[in-house]
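Sequence design from tokenized structure. All designs in this work follow the same two-part layout: the structure record, then the generated sequence. An example of the structure record is given first.
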């Protein structure tokens, strides 16, 4: 059976201080081993809309270098987001880094307009799928959770496109019920495992974050749930559970076949 030992890192992010956050994460993850490590959105600096001194080069930079080192030390696939500058366009970019140092990236499609994210960042346009240890993984970011068409699994050749859907977030306490309900819905409707990793603590704008990171089975059962404090939530994901459910309840065979246009609509 293919299992993934997963670490959901629910950190209390230090506002606009990349070096301090990476040092704190080194302590939090000391001597940890895993197959998959998922970090919150903007884990190295918080959900700031300040570009100067925060945005890093898209293909190297301090945060990406640190993620490569972490992946190498732990043997895990490491996922987290960073504000990047790519050819004078700024993105909320999720890096998915292998122990070899190879990486893929996904740029956040749905920018949080109520937080002014669209004023300084450009939206991504492309979904990705990352194969890892026999699993297909789709990474998404925070506000993407509210848009089921963008998150939607698809059936190609009689099989769902991905097995595990990941959301990296800075989700506020005031909408905690939405966070939990939508994550469960995404697992049920897409017949996949779902991981939602959220930060905790209060950010530099005074927004309180509740934590509440979750791991949800393909049937919608909450397997692991973090409380509000800073912590590392360790969970083993079972591929056989996924395949057994898909075989027993073949909803994926009846999924709608519409596709997104070039603009992602």
């Amino acid at each position: 059976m293919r299992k993934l030992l997963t670490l959901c890192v629910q950190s209390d992010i230090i506002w606009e201080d990349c070096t301090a956050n990476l040092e704190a994460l080194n302590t939090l993850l000391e001597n940890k081993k895993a197959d998959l490590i998922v970090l919150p959105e903007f884990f190295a600096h918080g959900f700031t809309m300040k570009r100067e001194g925060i945005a890093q080069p898209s293909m190297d930079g301090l945060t990406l270098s640190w993620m490569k080192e972490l992946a190498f030390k732990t043997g895990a696939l490491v996922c987290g987001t960073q504000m990047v500058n790519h050819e004078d366009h700024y993105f909320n970019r999720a890096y998915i880094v292998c122990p070899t140092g190879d990486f893929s990236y996904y740029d956040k499609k749905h920018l949080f307009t109520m937080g002014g994210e669209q004023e300084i960042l450009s939206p991504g346009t492309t979904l990705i799928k990352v194969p890892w240890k026999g699993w297909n993984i789709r990474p998404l970011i925070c506000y993407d959770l509210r848009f089921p068409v963008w998150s939607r699994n698809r059936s190609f050749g009689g099989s769902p496109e991905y097995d595990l859907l990941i959301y990296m977030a800075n989700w506020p306490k005031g909408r905690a019920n939405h966070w939990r309900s939508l994550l469960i819905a995404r697992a049920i409707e897409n017949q996949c495992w779902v991981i939602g990793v959220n930060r905790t603590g209060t950010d530099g704008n005074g927004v309180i974050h509740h934590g509440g990171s979750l791991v949800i089975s393909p049937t919608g059962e909450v397997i692991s749930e973090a409380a509000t404090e800073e912590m590392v939530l360790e969970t083993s994901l079972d591929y056989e559970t996924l395949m057994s459910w898909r075989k027993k309840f073949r909803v994926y065979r009846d999924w709608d076949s519409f596709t997104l246009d070039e603009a992602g609509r």
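The first helix runs from residue 18 to 28. We note this feature because it recurs in several other targets discussed in the main text.
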